[in-house]
Amino acid sequence: MSDEPAVRELRLVVTATDYEAALHFYRDVLGLAERAAFASADGRVTILDAGRATLELADPGHAAFIDEVEVGQRVAGHIRVAFQVDDCDAATSRLAAAGAQVIAHPTRTPWNSLSARLEAPGALQLTLFTELGGPEAD
């Protein structure tokens, strides 16, 4: 068995009715770098670099716990996209100004991050988070 991972990249594909608005939001406002763009007779696609990818699997109980901590109630569907950012407060303000609906403003979590929740273009619920470092002090 090889030590090389079997999967090389995680790619989340979002179909956005307003492609231009979604592209502006994720590329220009959130700051995801454009890696490639393609067009066909039927439409367009742009591949944006979101840095390192992970797949976070949660059972319904833990998903509800995360929503309770970050928002105060269960709000996410079965998919939520999380982006680690350097400054959660600034990123939340920037994305809200670009049309995202803030569901919950940045909140310190028990796992010592600052997390905000937004409803973004492409009908995606986003968590923005900034790691605050080390376990939270009592």
In short:
With 138 residues, the chain is α+β, with helices and mostly antiparallel strands. The chain has helices at residues 19-29, 60-70, 88-97, and strands spanning 33-40, 43-49, 81-84, 101-108, 113-120, 124-131.
Written account of the structure:
The chain has helices at residues 19-29, 60-70, 88-97, and strands at 33-40, 43-49, 81-84, 101-108, 113-120, 124-131. With 138 residues, it is an alpha+beta fold. The protein contains three helices and six strands; from the N terminus they run αββαβαβββ. The protein has a single domain, classed as 2,3-Dihydroxybiphenyl 1,2-Dioxygenase, domain 1. It has a four-stranded mixed beta sheet, with helices on one face. It has a two-stranded antiparallel sheet with strand order 1-2. A hairpin with a 3-residue loop joins strand 5 and strand 6 (124-131). It is 23% helix and 31% strand. The mean pLDDT is 92. It is globular. Residues 8-131 form the VOC domain. Pfam families: Glyoxalase.
